[in-house]
Design brief:
The protein is an alpha/beta fold. Helix content is about 30%, strand content about 25%. It folds into two domains: about 240 residues, P-loop containing nucleotide triphosphate hydrolases (Rossmann fold); about 70 residues, no CATH class. It has an eight-stranded mixed sheet, with helices on both faces. The mean pLDDT is about 90. It binds iron/sulfur cluster (SF4).
């Protein structure tokens, strides 16, 4: 499959008086048109920074390291100037965030924020932008779009606000949608609705979706492939079914063992002991070794990425950890 978004050896460095830290370290993944790739891992493992670096929305103290490439349709975004990047952001790659309340402007109505996004990227008049905004509100499942159009974010529920964010993201028909923990701030029933809307829109707009989540439970049945991230690196990539049935990396196995299952025999959930280390103190070698039940001497060295089967790769010294 041809890649629409091709990220290779992406490194993000933070500079401070205390030195340089690298919270994203040589991350590579590809995303094809119409595909959903889930980027999964615990909080603090570098998922959101990876997403922000694709749009180059990094904090001032951070920069993308030399040798990193982020190709969209064959064009590298890393060397682009700010004007070119502005056309990419929202126009070709859009992003929705965890908390729509902090992403929406509280002093503008939902409708005006959608029309503004449309007019920032398209040469259309006010009336056309309003018509398109109303269509989008309908597309994301907002009942009575005409009256919602003139409401302010505080007058909408959390689920409605996230739908408005999705409408803004879709307003310019992006090729890639990055959804960073899009349902974490919502209750479970609304979560399912938002994920279904994203999936439906991906199919109808033939978009590529990068779904960032700490929750493997929402990935099954929604993502085509999964990339598991730990301490700034991708440790396993596989087609979703394959990853759930035959996880090869001990970290993926531990993540799966900590997700409750509704089917099969009752099983005690198994937590992953310890926490993700800080980027200024990444362990040497395999970064999972302080928490890995199978760690042995060789794990003090960085394991290479190895192919397990077609489309399934892992970075672990052991062929079948158990
Ligand atoms: Fe565990 Fe070693 Fe594999 Fe890392 S390389 S996951 S420490 S067995």
């Amino acid at each position: 499959m041809t890649s629409l978004l091709d990220v290779r050896r992406l490194t993000v460095n933070f500079f401070s008086e205390a030195g340089t830290v690298t919270p994203v370290d040589e991350v590579s993944f590809q995303l094809a048109k119409g595909e959903t790739l889930a980027l999964v891992g615990e909080s603090g493992c570098g998922k959101s920074l990876t997403a922000l670096s694709i749009l180059q929305l990094l904090p001032r103290a951070a920069s993308i390291g030399p040798g990193s490439t982020i190709e969209l349709d064959g064009e590298d975004l890393v060397p682009m100037d700010e004007a070119a990047l502005r056309a990419v952001r929202g126009g070709r790659i859009a992003m929705i965030f965890q908390d729509p309340m902090t992403s929406l402007d509280p002093v503008y109505t939902a409708g005006s924020q959608i029309t503004e996004a449309i007019r920032a990227h398209r040469d259309v008049g006010k009336r056309q932008a309003r018509e398109r905004a109303l269509q989008l509100l309908e597309e994301v499942g907002i009942p009575d779009p005409l009256s919602r159009f003139d409401q302010y974010p505080h007058e909408l529920s959390g689920g409605m606000r996230q739908r408005v964010m999705i409408a803004i993201a879709l307003s310019c028909e992006p090729q890639v949608l990055i959804a960073d923990e899009p349902t974490t701030a919502l209750d479970v029933t609304v979560q399912a609705q938002i994920l279904e809307i994203l999936d439906r829109l991906r199919r109808s707009h033939d978009m590529a979706v990068l779904l960032i989540t700490h929750d493997l439970g929402i990935v099954a049945g929604r993502a085509d492939r999964v990339a598991v991230m730990y301490a700034g690196r991708i440790v396993e990539t596989a087609p979703t079914d394959r990853l759930f049935q035959h996880p090869a990396h001990p970290y993926t196995q531990a993540l799966l063992a900590s997700v409750p299952r509704l089917t099969g025999p009752l099983q005690r959930l198994s937590p992953i002991h310890g926490t993700v280390p800080n980027p200024d103190a990444w362990p040497a070698g395999c970064r999972f070794h302080p928490r890995c039940p199978y760690a042995f001497d060789r794990c003090q060295q960085q394991p290479p990425v190895r192919t397990v089967s077609d489309g399934h790769e892992t970075a672990c010294w052991l062929e079948s950890p158990q």
